[in-house]
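Researcher: I'd like a structural prediction for the single chain below. Treat it as a standalone chain; there are no partners to consider.
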Amino acid sequence: MIKKVKLKIGLDYHGVITVHPEYFSVFAKDVLARKGEVHIITGGSEQEVVAQLKDWNIPFSKIFSIPDYYKAKGEVIYFSDGEYKIPDDLWDKAKAEYCNLEGINMHIDDSKEYVKWFTTPYCRYDGTNPQCVTEDGHIIDFNSPPSKVLNDIERIIAKD
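Model: Treating it as a single chain, here is the predicted structure.
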């Protein structure tokens, strides 16, 4: 028998949610209905992302904005034209550190660059062929209804 686990899902905003917002609206609602958590993890500003999530009717438990986080820590380099830069080493590992700190048990992201920093199970999502392959070879098929995808994720994390 598979042990019951609390879902704590990390969802990348750009490249995952933005590609299929209708799907992830149902997905997030199902996670929360299962008493799980949905963490939106983004390279955008929290204010802009929250407004769009509201428009798309996508609920969430927490949001983590990389630029807002590093601005609050004073680790941003500002330029005279109003642009800013966060050092690459901080940016690249931010999602992994957040997932580890929050106990996320599956992170879904479209970027392959970040996976090397993760100890949290990481599934690389491809919006053109919505399948996700974890680092240990599990395939999560986002062509399936969200309830089936979440059942599959529960099985995967229960074995880890």
